[in-house]
Amino acid sequence: MSPQHRPDHSGESPTLAQRAVRRRVAGLEETAQSDVERLMQAGLALMVDSSGRRGPRVADIVAAAGLSNDAFYRYFGSKDALVEAIVEQGSRTVVSYVRHRIAAADGPHEKLEAGVDAIMKQASDADLAGKTRAVLSNSTMVSTGSRYGTAEFVDELAALFVASLTDLGAHDPARTARVIATTAVASMQYYLFRGEVPTEDDLAHLSAFALAGATEQRDASPTA
Question: Cα separation of 108 and 220, whole Å?
């Protein structure tokens, strides 16, 4: 049922006037979503072209998006606000991908390996590397307290490893998960900013390192 024909809270069908308002609002929302998507795609493309060294200028963004300055400031208060939205979207995409890969794996060892491999995929896949490099380079511009700064990004990834580490018997799974996520993200950044692609041996070594850390935590006694 279309929004303009949907009954209101009283259960009554909307009047013709209400339908006209809803039709107009729906059209404005669709236009806004399209504009924001165009601005974010243009901003990300410019960030990738600059190799993530600096945030793009508003003038360049609106030119690439085919919109006006007025349209830009209708949705974003500043260039940094747009960059933050791009960083958030990129971070969410990576976290969602890692979550999916972990969920698809069978046992805790396999889930841990799948999660580490999924993080490193951002550096080993040529199509992802440029976008991920740009997002990470600009994540330092994210305002304090945002969910998607670098530290928050690591925390969200770490949370995905806790269940597997608990199953593996780590006595401090949350702390161990944070170390593994930090190590994987730092390794990913190393290859991204070196402009290199990790080899299969590199990936295997990193996964083995993470598993060894989980095993050591399982065997170690909690500190007093």
Answer: 19
Q: What is the mean pLDDT of residues 16-28?
A: 80
For residue 106, pLDDT over 80 is answered with yes
Which amino acid, one-letter code, is at 193? F
Do 57 and 42 contact (CB within 8 A), yes or no? no
Q: For residue 202, how many other CB atoms are within 10 A of its CB?
A: 17
Chosen domain end from 53, 77, 101: 77
- Whether 61 and 96 map to the same domain: the answer is no
Handedness of CA 190, 152, 142, 74 (dihedral sign): positive
Contacts of 4 (CB under 8 A, 6+ apart): 14, 18, 19, 20, 22, 23, 26
Q: The whole model's pTM is what?
A: 0.78
pLDDT tens string 180-216: 999 999 999 999 888 899 999 999 999 999 888 777 6
Q: How many domains does the chain have?
A: 2
Domain, as residue range, for 150: 79-224
Spatial distance between the Cα atoms of 177 and 213, rounded to a whole number of angstroms: 10
